[in-house]
């Protein structure tokens, strides 16, 4: 028996009750994306119950083109994040059973974002100077500082609304191995500050036509208690990670991993693992929604990615047996119609499918860690410290 956990990176479904505390009141990724393009075409998501979720939410907005169905194929609901934050690490760690409080450290947005002693030690150890040192959109800061980087060989260092230290480097100037080593040094320096992630951002091209490559790497803060991935592996249940999952969990609790740079490649690996493995957890992050469209506020591209994933699910569902469990959710929102370029604090949609079982209302879950408790229940592990299982034995 297998469990497949698919995280639709940034696909929120409506503002969380505390969204105003994050400056995100009024955000609603799926409904606003659908409205912006005149309606989505998601027949598989619709059959699973996606269109039934908004009615469960306070002030929930309908998803244009995805109305509710009388008898969904899957369980449907929404999850409210309890941890402090709205970033990748916080969302993924909570769904793995952890609660993040106090939140990860956030660097100031204005120059200089990073403490002078931090930068001095980083430059001493890497033997390169640093430019940037502020909050910025990744594409924008590469366009702004890329020419200077090419001339000087200095690191482009920047942060965002998330708890991140990001390093951008042209691969002709700083080879990947050196970029990754620089990130490892930054990770050591970030640990005492409890920074969620250090991210390698390699790029290629010339001024005016820079392009980021698929060789991104994330270096996560190490979890302070075991995640459900570690508990499963210790219990003898193999864990197969796809996409950036290995990086998000600091390479802990994983039996086998395939790092992919785009959603389509991740989908291919999910299918492969599902066909080849008879038992275990397959966990995947579908990154394009966030990386390519949410941060760039591209509603049409976001919609196209949703429709592509719907087609993937159409072909994927027949591979599952009655002994298998599929969970589809998200780690946060990233409303492509909202102001700014940052994540949005939203409810995460929840869809749960087991062949041969009728769909049912899962309600609003108080904590993403219900996912971890469900996986523990499904595989027969002892109960976890947090969460309530939505698995029907």
Description:
This protein has 393 residues and is α/β, with parallel strands linked by helices. It folds into two domains: 2-100 and 223-379, 3-Layer(aba) Sandwich (Alkaline Phosphatase, subunit A); 116-220, Alpha-Beta Plaits (2-Layer Sandwich). Helices cover 31% and strands 20% of the residues. It is built from twelve helices and 15 strands. It has helices at residues 29-36, 43-48, 88-95, 116-126, 138-152, 176-190, 228-234, 245-248, 263-276, 288-294, 299-316, 370-379, and strands at 2-8, 14-15, 75-80, 130-135, 155-159, 164-170, 197-204, 211-212, 217-220, 239-242, 256-258, 280-286, 325-329, 346-353, 361-366. Strands 1, 2, 3, 10, 11, 12, 13, 14 and 15 form a nine-stranded mixed β-sheet that branches. β6, α6 (176-190) and β7 form a beta-alpha-beta unit. α4 packs antiparallel against α6 (176-190). The longest helix is centred in the last third of the chain and has 18 residues, at 299-316.
């Amino acid at each position: 028996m297998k469990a497949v956990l698919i995280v639709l990176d940034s696909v929120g479904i409506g503002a969380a009750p505390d969204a105003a505390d994050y400056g995100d009141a009024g955000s609603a990724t799926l409904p606003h994306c659908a409205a912006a393009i005149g309606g989505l075409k998601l027949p598989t998501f619709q059959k699973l119950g996606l269109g039934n979720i908004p009615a469960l939410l306070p002030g929930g907005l309908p998803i244009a083109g995805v109305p509710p169905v009388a008898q969904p194929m899957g369980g449907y609901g929404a999850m409210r994040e309890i941890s402090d934050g709205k970033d990748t690490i916080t969302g993924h760690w909570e769904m793995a059973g952890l609660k993040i409080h106090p939140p990860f450290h956030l660097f100031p947005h204005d120059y200089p974002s990073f403490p002078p002693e931090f930068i001095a030690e980083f430059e001493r150890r890497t033997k390169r100077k640093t430019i940037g040192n502020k909050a910025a959109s990744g594409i924008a800061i590469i366009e702004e500082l890329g020419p200077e980087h090419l001339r000087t060989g200095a690191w482009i260092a920047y942060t965002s609304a998330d708890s991140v230290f990001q390093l951008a480097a042209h691969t002709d100037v700083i080879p990947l191995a050196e970029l990754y080593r620089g990130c490892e040094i930054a990770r050591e320096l970030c640990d005492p500050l409890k920074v969620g992630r250090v991210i390698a951002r390699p790029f290629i091209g010339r001024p005016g036509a820079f392009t980021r490559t698929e060789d991104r790497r994330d270096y996560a803060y190490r979890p302070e208690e075991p995640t459900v991935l570690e508990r499963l592996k210790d219990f003898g249940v193999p864990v197969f990670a796809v996409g950036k999952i290995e990086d998000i969990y600091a390479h802990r609790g994983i039996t086998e991993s395939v790092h992919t740079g785009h959603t389509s490649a991740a989908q291919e690996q999910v299918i492969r693992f599902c066909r080849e493995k008879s038992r275990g957890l397959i966990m995947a992050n579908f990154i394009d929604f966030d990386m390519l469209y949410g941060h760039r506020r591209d509603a049409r591209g976001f919609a196209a990615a949703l429709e592509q994933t719907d087609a993937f699910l159409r072909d994927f569902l027949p591979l599952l047996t009655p002994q298998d469990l599929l969970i589809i959710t998200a780690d946060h929102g990233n409303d492509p119609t909202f102001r700014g370029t940052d994540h949005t604090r939203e409810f995460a949609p929840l869809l749960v499918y087991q062949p041969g079982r009728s769909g049912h209302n899962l309600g609003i879950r108080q904590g993403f860690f219900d996912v971890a408790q469900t996986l523990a229940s499904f595989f027969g592990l002892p109960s976890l410290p947090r969460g309530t299982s939505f698995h029907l034995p």
